Every structure is written in C-alpha cells, then in structure tokens.
C-alpha cells in the first residue's frame, strides 16, 4: 500500500508541476471539461490537447485510492482523471472485484465521480457500485473536513 501512495503522490506532484504526457491510454481519453478556474480544493492537471483541460478533485482522487486500496493499481492518469484497478478481494470478502474510477470535475460532488465495478462474472449489481461510490464520497468529505481544520 505504501508503494501505491508513493506512486499517487508522485503522479499528483507531476500533475501540479505541469508535466506533460500520458501514463496510459484510457477509454475516457477524449473526455474533458473546458478551461476555467478551479476552487482551492482541487488540483488542476492540464494535458497538451489544444484548449482542452481536465480538473480533478484531489479529495475524490485520494478517497478513491483509500477506499479501493485492496485492489492493485494497473494504471493511473491524473490528466484525464482515470484510475484503472485490477482484480482484488476486499478484506473479509470472498469475491474478487476490479474497478475503473473516473473523476471528471473539480467539484466535490457525486456527479464528478463515476465508478465501474465488475467481478469475474461481469458487472456487479447497481447497489454494490452505489455503495462503493457512497464510501468514496464519504471519505472525500472526511479528507476535505480534515484539511479545513489545519
């Protein structure tokens, strides 16, 4: 888990420094939001694609890594807001899952988060995906509150 955290921190540092390039191709590579200002609770990552940029909410990003820490990370792309995770079994569970997380907006909002969760038998029930999204949103709010108390 320490390796995942170090990887995430180094990638976010790279994004903050304006480093270019992609860390892998993703199905969401063509998606983005128009340029604009981002609130202090976000980290702006801009990809060299003309006028297109994607703002990623750092709390949703970090909460996704925290909540789904039992899954191995296959690829992360802070420039498009995509985290692809391989199969893993949650603590105390017997079923393996994999996930793709897409953080599409700088807002700390449910609309900014999309989690595609699957088991080895195919997509999981919508209630399961919703529960994972709710856990990520709750953790993101906790992280935001903690930062506000500093």
UniProtKB/TrEMBL annotation:
Domain of life: Bacteria
One Pfam family linked to the record: DUF3576
InterPro entries associated with the record: DUF3576
Name of the protein in question: DUF3576 domain-containing protein
Keyword list, A-Z: Signal
Record's keyword annotation contains Protein biosynthesis: no
PROSITE patterns linked: PROKAR_LIPOPROTEIN
Signal peptide per UniProt: 1-18
Region (Disordered): 28-47
């Amino acid at each position: 888990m320490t390796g995942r955290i170090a990887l995430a921190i180094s990638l976010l540092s790279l994004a903050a420094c304006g480093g270019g390039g992609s860390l892998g191709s993703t199905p969401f590579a063509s998606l983005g939001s128009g340029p604009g200002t981002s609130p202090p609770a976000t980290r702006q990552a801009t990809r060299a694609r003309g006028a297109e940029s994607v703002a990623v909410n750092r709390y949703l990003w970090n909460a996704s890594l925290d909540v789904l820490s039992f899954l191995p990370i296959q690829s992360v792309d802070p420039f498009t807001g995509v985290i692809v995770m391989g199969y893993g079994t949650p603590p105390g569970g017997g079923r393996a899952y994999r996930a793709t997380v897409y953080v599409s907006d700088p807002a700390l909002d449910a609309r900014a988060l999309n989690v595609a969760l699957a088991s080895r038998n195919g997509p999981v029930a919508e209630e399961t995906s919703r529960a994972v999204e709710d856990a990520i949103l709750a953790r993101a709010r906790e992280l935001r509150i903690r930062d506000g108390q500093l």
